[in-house]
Each structure stands twice: as C-alpha cells, then as structure tokens.
Design a protein that fits this description.
heterodimer; A: 2 domains; two-stranded antiparallel ribbon; 24% helix; B: alpha+beta; 5 strands; 39% helix; 13% strand; globular; binds iron/sulfur cluster
C-alpha cells in the first residue's frame, strides 16, 4: 500500500492511516529487540559517512509494529485485509467463500451455470467500499443474484439495488470479492458490465469465472465462449472431484462458509 | 480470497508451478477433518514439494526475537514438519510442486488415500487437465482466471507482478518484489536468500520459491 513512510520533520517512520488497510504484514515480519536509541545512533552515524548497513529486508530491528485494537468501522479493514484474522465477533461472516473449491460436495455451480468471482483491489492496490458499490449497483441493475454466503453480500443493505452499508463506504481494504451466479447465456452481458464499470473505479479488478465440467471432465461450453469473447484463460483452479460426504452426524442442508479457520 | 488463482504469467510459465490443496466442506465432510488434513500434508511431503502451508503458516516463516548475527546467517530452508504439526483447525492446506511429474505422483497417492476432502489443483488450465487424465480421474469443476482489469495503470511491470502475485493474499508487496529483484541483480543477495525472504511473507505457504528463483535468474540475465 505504500502506507509506511519516513516523516522527515521528526525523523521517524510513520504509517499513513488513511492508506493503511490493516493487513498486518508489517507486524508479522521477523524482528529483533534492539534498543531503538542504539539503532537510530548507528543509522545517523552511517548517514554522516554516506554508507548504509544492509540488514535482512524482512527484519524489524526494534519490534516496532504493534497491532491496535480497532473500533468499528475501521475493524472492517482488518477483516478484509488480514488473511490470518479470525472474525467471529464482528457479525461479518468470513472474507472468502468456498467458490467451486468444494463444488464436488456442495454443488454450488451446476452444469449450464456460471459462477463469477469478481475481486477488487488485488493485486496490491486496495479498494474503497464505494468503488465496490459502484460495481454491485451496476450488476444489480442486470437482475443478478448475489451469492448469499459471501462477505460483501452480508454488507449489503439492499441486495436488489446492490447498496452497501453507508458507514463503510470510505474504508479502504486490501481486497474483496463479489460473487454471483448466472446462466451461460448471461455471461457476455455480465463480463461487459464488469469491464465497463472497472473503467470508472480507481482500482484493479481480478476476474474469475467457473463452471461444472461434463461427465468426461471436459468443459465444452464456458471455455469456448470465453475464447469467443476474447478472454485468455491461461490459469485455473481445478476441482478434481475427490470430495464426498463423510459426516455421520450433520445432515444435508447444513452447508456453511463459516469455517473455524477462514476459507482461503 | 482466491489465493492461488490469479498468478500472473502465461501458461508456459506455470510449468514449474503446481499447487494441490485440500479443503473440507462444513456440514458435509468436516468431521475429524483435522486428521485428514494432516494426512494430506504428510502424503504431499513425501513427494518433495517446494512449499507447504496450513492457512496460518507456510514452510518459510518469520521468527521473533532474532539475534543480530542473523543478518549474516539466516536459515533459508523449508520446515515441512512444522507445517504438519501446526494443523489444529479446519481450513485449507496446500502443497506446491515444481514439476507436473511430482504433482501427478502425489495426486495418485491422494486418490489412493481417498481422504474424502475436496482436492483442487491450481496451475495452467492444460496442466491440471493433463494431470487429472494421467491419474485416471475427471475434472469436476474449473474456475478460470481471466486476469486483471487495470484501466488506470496501477499495476507494475510483469517481473514484479509475477513475483508478488504468488502470494494471492497480497502479502508480498510490489515494493518488496522490486527490492528483491534489485538485490539479486546487484549481487547483494543470492536467489536462495531472496526467495526465502519473499516466501516468509506468505502465511498460507503457497508461494513458489522455485518459480521465484527462476524468475529472479531470468530477470538478472535480461539485465545483462
Ligand atoms: S498493516 Fe499492512 S497496509 Fe498497514 S502499514 Fe502494515 S503492511 Fe502496510
């Protein structure tokens, strides 16, 4: 995010809190517990002689990073940015979903259907919720059905209009996913809308589309369609179909994305 | 978050990048799943992965309270046993392989073990299709990456993107990737040291140090 900078007026590193998405990467890096006065003195001396000690790039010499307790709405930044956070008390149900990763067991996307994973802010740019809302409102106008078990859907105040909670709109996060499902026929209209709206929002969008393969493990529908639409799908996540129901206690219809460790 | 789907690069550039991951589905196959997740990782560890992870830590990890001598003697080795031992909760576990052969051999053992968990492969579309065929199974579902839409030119050059997008959660920043490219080009770090630094930021253990090493080597030669 480029949130950490040296404030030359006080000669100290600071974090730009408006840009910081609370991802926690800085606080997790390796550290030493050296005396800050000693470290600053050595650095000042080195500066005078125009040389620079080249330490390990991922070691904080003074263990300077401390994770703050965050109030709402800022806590939402952490929920959507820190991959290690657990968020049982926030009321927001997870940051990721199972998508087609468990489709062999959960049957989320069937033959003839297409799932979309529209991810904002990634890689490395970040996004504010009002940018996401611009997209969800445009998609809602197409009459799409937003995936119910998705964290962004949980933040919607009106799913039919795609509007998000107002007090979150200016919060910045590392990334978030909007998920929906349509028929194959609707693919061109959805992708066209996503491309068009992405031009109006100041972030990056990563796009994923999924489908169920046929009995022979082939995809005779979506792959050729994407090809026709000019998309280059070089990489994929492939569910190999080895999952099955093994639970003896829980019955059917109890599928949830609320794993005790978040779904990644 | 789709942490392995959107790696930047062309299909040919994923010849050394095969990720196998297992995920339980709550209410369907999550009873006693921790045991089976560990078993998944144990099987993977036998096939010489280049990284492994359990959703909270990878085989390359940061360390606390280091001694200053660390700047001259840093460990750059992977710790697979630590990853397996630390699986305590239901979540996703993953292993990264640098050849399709190793990934296929591992997949064959996983099919044999019949863990009941959903198992996915993240690599090129073709690579996963062939791996499934060679192991005698059919693909169930596919999620295609259609890449990035960046009409406002936020993204850096392809070398930085290839290195940083290997942590799909965005924990390997563009600036860190740039720094490692520079340090290797200028001979200030070896490729082994640089990739260990990059991989330590990826808490899911899906960063591919072998591919990163190749990319760093290529970038050094491109400069020459
Ligand atoms: S929490 Fe993340 S965004 Fe904020 S300063 Fe640390 S690394 Fe940067």
């Amino acid at each position: 995010m480029g949130a950490i900078y040296v404030d030359s007026s006080v000669n100290r590193a600071k974090i730009n809190l408006d840009e910081c998405v609370e991802c926690g990467a800085c606080s997790r890096m390796s550290n030493e517990t050296l005396n800050p006065h000693l470290v600053r003195s050595v650095r000042s001396l080195a500066k005078i002689f125009r040389f620079r000690f080249e330490p390990e790039p991922d070691v904080c010499p003074t263990s300077a990073f401390v994770i703050d307790d965050l109030p709402y709405p800022r806590i939402v930044r952490r929920i959507f940015s820190d991959p290690l956070i657990e968020h049982t008390s926030t009321g927001i149900k997870g940051r990721g979903t199972e998508e087609v990763k468990t489709n062999d067991v959960a049957h989320r996307v069937s033959v003839g259907e297409v799932g979309y994973v529209i991810e904002f802010g990634r890689p490395g740019v970040g996004v504010r919720f009002h940018h996401i809302q611009t997209m969800t409102m445009a998609l809602a106008k197409l009459g799409v059905h937003f995936e119910g078990k998705n964290p962004i859907t949980h933040l919607m105040v009106d799913r039919s209009r795609g509007t998000l909670k107002e007090d979150l709109l200016h919060e910045k996060i590392l990334s978030a996913i909007v998920e929906l499902k349509t028929t194959t026929e609707e693919v061109p209209a959805i992708l066209e809308t996503v491309e068009k709206v992405s031009k109006t929002i100041d972030t990056v969008v990563a796009l994923g589309v999924s489908t169920r393969c046929d009995q022979t493990g082939n995809d005779p529908v979506l792959a050729p369609l994407l090809d026709d639409l000019g998309y280059d799908s070089e990489r994929a996540k492939t569910n190999l179909g080895l999952g099955r129901v093994t639970n003896t206690r829980n019955g059917e219809g109890n599928i949830s994305d609320e794993h005790s460790a978040s779904v990644r | 978050m789709t942490n392995t789907l959107h790696r930047y690069g062309k299909a040919a550039g994923f010849e050394d990048d095969y990720i196998l991951f297992a995920i339980p589905c709550k209410g369907k196959n999550d009873e006693e799943a921790v045991k089976r997740l560990k078993e998944f990782l144990e099987i993977c560890a036998r096939h010489h992965p280049v990284n492994m992870g359990n959703s909270t830590s990878g085989a390359y990890r940061p360390s606390q309270e280091l001694h200053p001598t660390i700047h001259w003697s840093r460990n750059t080795k992977a710790d697979y046993n630590g990853v397996i031992a630390a699986v305590e909760k239901i979540g996703t576990v993953a292993a990264v392989f640098s050849t399709r052969k190793k990934a296929e051999e591992c997949l064959a053992d996983l099919i044999e073990a019949d863990l009941g968990l959903s198992i996915n492969m993240s690599t090129s579309v073709e690579g996963a299709h062939r791996a499934a065929e060679n192991c005698g199974i059919h693909r169930h579902s596919v999620e295609y990456s259609l890449g990035f839409l960046d009409p406002h030119d936020h993204l850096p050059n392809s070398q930085v993107l290839e290195l940083s997008t290997m942590c799909g959660h965005g924990m390997v920043s563009f600036n860190l990737a740039r720094k490692m490219l520079d340090m290797v080009r200028e001979g200030r770090r070896t490729t082994d040291q640089a990739v260990a630094t990059l991989a330590r930021f990826c808490p899911c253990g899906v960063y591919n140090p072998e591919r990163a090493k190749r990319l760093l080597e290529e970038s050094r030669k491109r400069q020459a």
